[in-house]
Amino acid sequence: MKRWALLVAAAAALSTPSGRPQTIGFDDQKAGEGPRGFSCTLTGQGRPGVWIVVEDETAPSPSNALVQTDADSTGYRFPVCVFDGVSAADVAVSVRFKPLKGSKDRAAGIVWRFRDKDNYYIVRANALENNVVLYKVENGKRTDLDPKASGPFAYGKKTKVPSGTWSTLQVIAEGNLFETYLNGERLFEVEDSTFRAAGKVGLWTKADSATHFDDLSINVLR
């Protein structure tokens, strides 16, 4: 199956290593509480994130979503919330997200091959910068990775990331190749071999971003 077809399938029907379909939509959880089945931490500086389930009737699967609520605007501050139920190296992940506010940043991200708060991959969409960028975080240092065939000074890809509207961010990680998509459009691919082993998958924001997340989809490829 071609990767684009696999991505579409992953968004509709997920599988854990046992092969059972799964969708993480937060609708079976209580609004005002932290997300069950997730572990939350902080990369960088500033206050730890506060991740809570909230009611959002506009959510793709009503009526709940997940949001990080602490608006600490420290620049090098990356709240992370990882799902404890899956550990994988090769994985296709998608999430629906709606950026709402944030003057320092207005971002939504997916992390994978998460070893700990200082070591993982991240792809993020930013509604203030209107771009999507893929990074590695190694020993706590975040470094952007150049898209293939883009030249040495590329910084992800410029693309419209609307505020106040639900979008879909997606990544397919197979071996050392990572493909990124926004709203079904293939943006770029990155090649990197820093982290090869299995790790957790999760969600990410930056600084004072207030972003709603829904329908985190995980498809373990092997």
CATH topology: Jelly Rolls
Mean pLDDT: 91
* Multimerization state: single chain
Query: Share of helix among residues?
Result: under 10%
Tell the overall outline: globular
CATH superfamily: Exo-inulinase, domain 1
Q: Topology as H/E string?
A: HEEEEEEEEEEEEEEE
Structure notes:
There is one protein chain. The chain is mainly beta and 222 residues long. It has a single domain, classed as Exo-inulinase, domain 1 (Jelly Rolls, Sandwich), CATH 2.60.120. It is 5% helix and 50% strand. The chain has 1 helix and 15 strands, in the order αβββββββββββββββ. Strands 1, 4, 6, 7, 8, 9, 10 and 14 form an 8-stranded antiparallel beta sheet that branches. A hairpin with a 2-residue loop joins strand 6 and strand 7. The protein is globular and about 45 Å long. The chain starts with a helix and ends with a strand.
Which features characterize this protein?
7-stranded antiparallel sheet, 8-stranded antiparallel sheet, globular, 1 helix, mainly beta
Topology:
Blueprint: H1 3-12, E1 38-44, E2 51-55, E3 64-68, E4 77-88, E5 91-101, E6 107-116, E7 119-126, E8 131-138, E9 141-144, E10 157-158, E11 167-174, E12 177-182, E13 185-191, E14 199-204, E15 210-220
Antiparallel strand pairs: 1-4, 2-3, 3-15, 4-14, 5-11, 5-15, 6-7, 6-14, 7-8, 8-9, 8-10, 11-12, 12-13
Compact summary:
With 222 residues, the protein is mainly beta.
